Every structure is written in structure tokens, then in C-alpha cells.
Amino acid sequence: MTDIAPLLSVEGVDVHYGRGARRKQAIHAADFAIAPGEVVGLIGETGSGKSTLARAIIGLVRPEAGRIAFHEEDLTALTPAKWRAFRRTGVIQYVFQDPLRSLDPDMTLHDSVAEPLLIRGGLTRAQITEKVRRQFGKVLLDETLLSRLPGQVSGGQRQRAAIARALLTEPRLLILDEPVSALDSANRVQILELLHALAGPDVALLFISHDLGSVAGITDRVIVLYRGRIVEVDRTDSIINRPAHPYTKLLVGSAPTLTAGGSDRQWRDRLRAELGAA
What we know:
Number of domains: 1
Oligomer: single chain
CATH superfamily: P-loop containing nucleotide triphosphate hydrolases
Strand order of the largest sheet: 6-7-8-3-9-10
């Protein structure tokens, strides 16, 4: 982290589910920040609370305690109407693990990707179509796929379309929830390489995964979540080479062929080797 004011601040956030005897605390005093343009991994096993924390950031779950701020605006204080207006700005976008959750199976890829701009308004149909075409190019999708339904393209192509849809509103923060875990090894590498290329000063990424190996090559820092608690936050190279918490050591040990640092080519080679062995 630098001295730049954070883009996102999560301060002492608690999230509970259920009531009475079934009441369960899913997130315990989560505390972290993301700087503009930073790429951060949120790592933890299934059920650790990763998606719950992400849903709290985008207002789908209301924290019971703590504060979530975006550009110093307190999101936890927004009314439902103000939350809807905030979402329409598109400054925070969310990409699901399964793109079929965000791409309507009965809409063409063009119409699904264009939908955020249609909702926001202010552009003609022709302007929106041109933006969709340009965005398809950025995620390396052929324009011939624009007229196809999600079920008529591959899983990797669907995920690229979902990323294109999320990027179309020019978000400042892109949250990716297990974006490669449903893909085969070849498509996982391609999507990770795409995200690595997209990372830059204009958009920060929060990459949620249970697999430290998948995010080691594209993240600046890693947040380790264990049973709803953040147990370690550090630069990625430190997490890989000098893990402090026993759970982090277990995660690192599960991806023994990956080490932080090195050139992009070295990272891709290590990544391909790791995924190929999985």
C-alpha cells in the first residue's frame, strides 16, 4: 500500500446470518483497504466468508457492525434507493464464478453486455453497440459471437463476455468471485492472463479465490480469510515466501510449484505447470 487515499475501505465489518439459535457470524471484524489501481487477492477455503464479504461491499448484505467506504463515501449508510442509484453508476462491478448467473440465457451476448449502459441511459443504441464491439476486442472475443446466446459459446468465452460487461461502465473497482474455478486449465490460464493485462491505474481488482496459485502472478497483495476472520494481509511475494499464519502456510504448501516474483513469462510458465498438474 502507498500513501494514496484508499479507493475502498473496510473497517471492522461484522456480518451475521440467521436468527436466534441459528444465528451465525459469517465475518468477524474485517479490516482492509484497496488503493486505486491495486490488485488484491482475497483467499480462503469454501465457506470461509469470501463471497459474503464481497456481497457486503456491493450492498447485497448489510453489515451488523463496521463501515464500508468507497472514495470516502459511507456505503453502509446508504438507503436502498441511494444504493440503487449508486449501483447504476457502475463504479463497482461484480463478476460471478458462473457467468450464466450474470448473463441472461435468453439474451444475446451483445444485449447482455450492453445492459448496464441501457440501464444507466444517456447513449444511443448505435453508441452502445460501438462500445460493446470495442469492449469485445479488449477481452479478445470475436465480433461474430455478439449475436450468440450464452449457451452457444464456451465457458471461457462466457467468462470473457461477463468481464466485458463488467468493464463497459468503466468501473473503478472490479470484484471477481472465483472467476476461473469453473473453467478448464487452458481457459483458466487465458482468463488469468487477460486479467493480468487489464490491471492498471484505472481499475482496481479484488480477486476472490480458494486457490492461491491462481492469483499469485497478478496480485499486489493478498488477504487471507479463515473461518470469517482475516488472519494475514501482506504483499504477495511475502505471503508466498514468508507466510506467517499456519493456514496461510497450508495454502502456500498446496501450490508448491508457484513462487512470487519473476517475469510475466516465468509466471505464466509456472501457472501452466501448476494448472496442468492439478
